Amino acid sequence: MIAWLLIAFIACAAFLLWRRIAAGKAALPRAGDALPDFALPDQNDAVRSAADFRGRWLVLYFYPRDDTPGCTEQAARFRDALQEFGAAGAAVCGISVDDSASHAAFARKYALPFALLADRDGAVARRFGSLLDLGLVRFARRNSFLVDPQGRIVKAYLGVNPAHNARDVLADLRGLSQ
What we know:
With 178 residues, the protein is α/β, with parallel strands linked by helices.
């Protein structure tokens, strides 16, 4: 009897987790969609909004946590290619559910010269289909979006590899901005 109850509990938990994951993916913006509006504090507590980036390309990347191995590698790759992104007319912004103080320490430790936006309640990540909400624990999914100067999403990169994300986005940006 107890074994059946345990199996039923596990099956129910798996189903609920699957529903949460599927609900997040349903909200993903697609190529051609307008950039969902946002206004979030950066690592310096300055509020940055979608409108601040109008008129130039924007790379908006979501990442799970500050100062973790994959997130550090991804941020460092964007940092190392930032001059090339700038030459192509693009700004880079990272977003996670960490707070501004955590972002500030992360940016200082790794000399990250671009905005890291604090989405504490996960609302922006949710609008981008990039929130993994497990109830007690929330993370941003590792997704990136390339946005054109008119504020339209050109490409969504889902479940990206942190070692290749900056390179892949930069290659697409170069092809589109010429």
